[in-house]
Amino acid sequence: MKVNENILISSLTTMRLGGPARFVLEVETPEEVADAYGFAEQYHLPTFVLGYGANTIGHDEGFNGVIIINRMKGISIETPTNAPEEKSDLASGQSSLSEGHKTWASAPERPEERELDHSPIKLKIMGGEYWDDVVEYACNKDLTGIEALSKIPGLAGAAPVQNIGAYGQEIADTLVEIDVYDTLDRTYKTLSRADLNFSYRKSILNTTSKNRYFVISITLELKPGEMPRPLYNSIEQYIATFNITDYSPMSIRNIVSTIRANKLPDPLVQASAGSFFKNIYLDESAADAAEAKGYPVYRGKDGNKINSGWLIEQAGLKGKLIHGFRVSDKAALVLINESAKSYQDLANARNEIIGKVYDKYGFWLEQEPVELQ
Ligand SMILES: Cc1cc2nc3c(=O)[nH]c(=O)nc-3n(C[C@H](O)[C@H](O)[C@H](O)COP(=O)(O)OP(=O)(O)OC[C@H]3O[C@@H](n4cnc5c(N)ncnc54)[C@H](O)[C@@H]3O)c2cc1C
Questions:
Q1: pLDDT beyond 80 at 320
Q2: 99, 288, 329, 364: which could join 319 in a potential S-S bond, CB 3.0 to 4.6 Å?
Q3: Single pTM value for the model
């Protein structure tokens, strides 16, 4: 376990806000997770589990506690026939604090017979792997199920926390189970997909059991093949525009990556936490009422949705600079930290946007990123 002291939270989070954290512990084995919590207990300090910091906002006063980061690397493939597992330690696990993101070493080749086999394949991924490397790995193996989740910044261990989703896929669709450390009874456990109670940007990990479990690894079930059509609107439009005939996982990954690069800030270049507000989900009668007022309601398999970005745009805020935060002119849900230095600036910007949207439409926008406190 690596122990670091007095590290600025702004250097650990993509919104680049937040004062010093007293301790930052980087755990490299499952056993070290219990040690890390023991360390915090010894100092009588609170804990916070951090990944890549792409969905976490630091506070100006910092955190007088212990931040724990999962640095466990590796992947193993469970063969469908219970044949011996194919294991690969794909990275050294020696990443530095500021590094976080490591690329895969050369991935193991699947046994030849699996090329012809269309049964699902389970991947067990250690939580310290960078999520997009996992997607690339799966696409390289022609496995479908997470290709639309390409380029979502973050670590694999954080992916189930808010049930990451994009372009018609959610991790809930393919996640089988996760291995965790339970801080309540100090034991190592496995939680199934059903245990996690997934919904839009939610699981028990950020609701009923918030801060209880440390995610050590995640297991996904992916299939050889292609995403079922029709695909998400913007992907279909791209396919039509560029006459694309290749629907393989890697092709969809490339399309999604291009769409995202044109629309969303690269966290290494522009400070943001991605979508700062959640979309609004409505029950049937509220959806009917919203439609009667002329608001665009999307009725999908995951419910009736109003795009919060549309509300922000209609409230005249798209592209505006508010307390140092730019409301992205490409995706109004995204706030880019152009010049803000304090959490207070963010609070002011957030309140102004929420207030304007509420005054015009009567909907309360809800913040997506978590606050580190
Ligand atoms: C440019 C940009 C685009 C984005 N696009 C999307 C998108 O399309 N879809 C989407 O869903 N999200 C998106 N996000 C949000 C973010 O990428 C995801 O929420 C991602 O899963 C965060 O991973 P992380 O490792 O950075 O988590 P962090 O921000 O470090 O942590 C997020 C939460 O997970 C908890 N956590 C982290 N690791 C663990 C662990 N090992 N065990 C237990 N709890 C843990 C933390 O305590 C915290 O509550 C975007 C963010 C950015 C900056």
A1: yes
A2: 329
A3: 0.91
User: What does the pLDDT average to over 191-199?
Assistant: 97
Domain that holds residue 28: 2-70
- Supply the CATH number for residue 66's domain: 3.30.43.10
Residue 345 CA to residue 343 CA, distance in Å, equals 5
Same domain, 88 and 188: yes
CB 69 within 8 A of CB 26: yes
Are residues 219 and 92 located together in one domain of the fold? yes
Residue 333 CB coordination number (10 Å): 23
Clarify whether residues 308 and 226 are in a common domain: no
Question: Is the separation of the CB atoms in 60 and 83 below 8 Å?
Answer: no
- Testing ligand 1's pocket by substitution, the residue of 15, 47, 50 carrying the most ligand atoms inside 8 A of its CB is 50
Q: How far is the C-alpha of 309 from the C-alpha of 313, rounded, in Å?
A: 6
- Same domain flag for 190 and 170: yes
Number of compact structural domains in the chain: 3
Are residues 347 and 357 in contact, defined by beta-carbon separation less than 8 angstroms?
no
Mutate to test the pocket of ligand 1, among 10, 66, 155, 161 (most ligand atoms within 8 A of CB): 161
Residue 134 Cβ contacting ligand 1 at under 6 Å: no
Ligand 1 centroid, distance to 350 Cα (angstroms): 19
> Ligand 1 in contact with 158 (CB < 6 A)?
yes
